[in-house]
Amino acid sequence: MEYPTIEAIIGNTPLVRLQRLPGCEKNTVLVKLEGNNPGGSVKDRPALSMIQRAEAAGAIKPGDTIIEATSGNTGIALAMVAAVKGYNMILIMPDHMTEERKAAMTAYGAKLILVSKAEGMEGARDLAQAMASRGEGVVLDQFSNTDNPLAHFTGTGPEIWQQTGGTVTHFVSSMGTTGTIVGTSKFLKSQNPNVQVVGLQPAEGAAIPGIRAWPQEYMPTIFTDENIDSVVQMSQQKAEETMRLLAKKEGVFCGVSSGGAVAAALDIAASTEGAVIVAIICDRGDRYLSSGVFNS
């Protein structure tokens, strides 16, 4: 009997219906549980895609060192895939990210380099490129690597289409590297151009892990807005309140950006009837416990 390895069980995550939050009674509000991936987030998909395709292109081979800037989930996913495939992993992350994320990366054997909160992800990205230019490793660069959205065009999008029987009317996703929304929306629009795609960016003053409004010079080059119909400015308070409600009323334990995606989905549900709305639950809530966001 042949048994799967870890990378073989990435993807094919459940799509479940919300029952008790406002708007669900007149619409079908569905959430895709990406925390069910073995590394605990939607980023398992692009991590595997980027490494597999870099191997196929001859850009890396087992034993090499991979370097990546991350705010958490991509780093954990890359560390997991690197462990399975035999790579050395160096991750660069702002120091204010949660302790759970740092611990998960090092548990998989990655070396973690921290930059200051003031330097942020921009500083982490600059350091990764500087290290690569010195020959210290290969940067896969989730922000410019087309194998990131490709993972969602070939995986997340087709799964949603199949799981809804082609009835999806709205797709809602946070925008960080933008790989999830770019790849998934491209597939869904190829099946039905009328599917409404809604992206999330942080409202002014909000600091939501996984949702970013990048300075122009750091804008991910994989981003294209051709399949995005609207962008919601999500407040910190609304994202966190919805995140807590998801755990208490629906049994969905997730992070803040996922709370924001569901908040936007519920806003859509409040103004329509008979819609089939799909929101991405990016990761699990246990990565945020030390931050205190579940204490309120």
TrEMBL record:
Keywords for the protein's UniProt record, in alphabetical order: Amino-acid biosynthesis, Cysteine biosynthesis, Pyridoxal phosphate, Transferase
Residues recorded as bearing N6-(pyridoxal phosphate)lysine in the entry: 43
Cofactor(s) it depends on: pyridoxal 5'-phosphate
Catalytic activities: O-acetyl-L-serine + hydrogen sulfide = L-cysteine + acetate
Keyword Nuclease: no
Binding site for pyridoxal 5'-phosphate: 73, 176-180, 257
SUPFAM superfamilies, per the entry: Tryptophan synthase beta subunit-like PLP-dependent enzymes
Highest rank taxon of the organism: Bacteria
Enzyme class: transferase
Recorded metabolic or biological pathway in which this protein acts: Amino-acid biosynthesis; L-cysteine biosynthesis; L-cysteine from L-serine: step 2/2
EC number: 2.5.1.47
GO biological process: cysteine biosynthetic process from serine
Domain Tryptophan synthase beta chain-like PALP, residue spans: 8-283
A Pfam family of this chain: PALP
UniProt cross-references to PROSITE patterns, sorted A to Z: CYS_SYNTHASE
Transmembrane parts of this sequence: none
GO MF entries: cysteine synthase activity
Family (UniProt): Belongs to the cysteine synthase/cystathionine beta-synthase family.
PANTHER family: CYSTATHIONINE BETA-SYNTHASE
Protein name: Cysteine synthase
Source species of the chain: Saccharophagus degradans
Gene that specifies this protein: cysM
